Amino acid sequence: MPIGPGKELPAEAAYPDRLYTVEHTITTALTKELQYARLGRDNHSIFHTVLHASLLFIYTNLRQTPVGGAIRNALVNRLQNHLEQLDKDDMADRFPAVMLWVFHLGLVTAAWTPSGLFWTGFLRRVCLERRLESWRDVEKEMEGLPIFENVYRGMCEMAWNERVYVNMIGDL
Fold first, then answer.
1. Structure confidence at residue 1 as a pLDDT band (50, 70, 90)
2. Is-contact 138 127, C-beta < 8 A?
3. Is residue 62 part of a domain?
4. Residue 140 CB: number of other CB atoms within 10 A?
5. DSSP 8-state code for residue 59
6. Euclidean distance between the first and the last CA atom of the chain, given in angstroms as a whole number
7. Which of 94, 98, 122, 159 shows its CA 20 to 30 Å from the CA of 50?
8. Is residue 151 part of a domain?
């Protein structure tokens, strides 16, 4: 059925186009950030971190690309490389909920790989400092951030319980 002037596509039909638009906006912003870095400007802001994490969120949670797939691996490695250059403690102190969300994206994407320890160690420290002793506490802390779909939320909870909580028990 043709769409006339002033009429919008149904949400189901427009969803892929909107997702492509968001991806394009994010990759354009990342490209500009990289250009600024070449000019000697700081590209280690929370904004840059959120851009990297947003792409990972799209490909894991919205596009649901395969676990262990090339796209996810490239995005999680890029995010990890970016975070390794940051003062993560300072970022977690200034933006605790955002960094908790970012590290959960990384944890689930890389939990059962060698780089899983990078994500686990940081999450453990943030949870101890913020006194997050249950998955419910963690979800409450991340309230207001992009929502993980049910399957992804379950994976986050399972990874948190297996990787973070078990390691925290001895420190409580």
1. very low
2. yes
3. yes
4. 11
5. I
6. 61
7. 159
8. yes
State whether residue 56 is helix, strand or coil. helix
d(CA 148, CA 135): 13
Percent of residues in the chain assigned helix, strand, coil, to nearest 5: 75, 0, 25
Q: How confident is the model at residue 110 (pLDDT cuts 50, 70, 90)?
A: confident
Helix axes 11-38, 46-57, angle to 10 degrees: 140
The residues near 128 (Cβ < 8 Å, ≥ 6 apart) are: 168, 171, 172
Total structural domains within the chain: 1
One-letter amino acid at 86 equals L
Q: Which domain holds residue 72?
A: 11-171
The maximal CA–CA distance of the chain, rounded, in angstroms, is: 64
**Which DSSP helix (H) or strand (E) runs through 69?**
none
Cβ-contact 135, 161 below 8 angstroms: yes
In a domain, 6, yes or no: no
Q: What does the alpha-carbon distance between residue 58 and residue 45 come to, in Å, rounded to a whole number?
A: 20
Q: Is residue 3 part of a domain?
A: no
Q: What is the pLDDT of residues 53-93, one digit of tens each?
A: 999 888 887 887 777 788 888 889 999 998 988 888 888 88
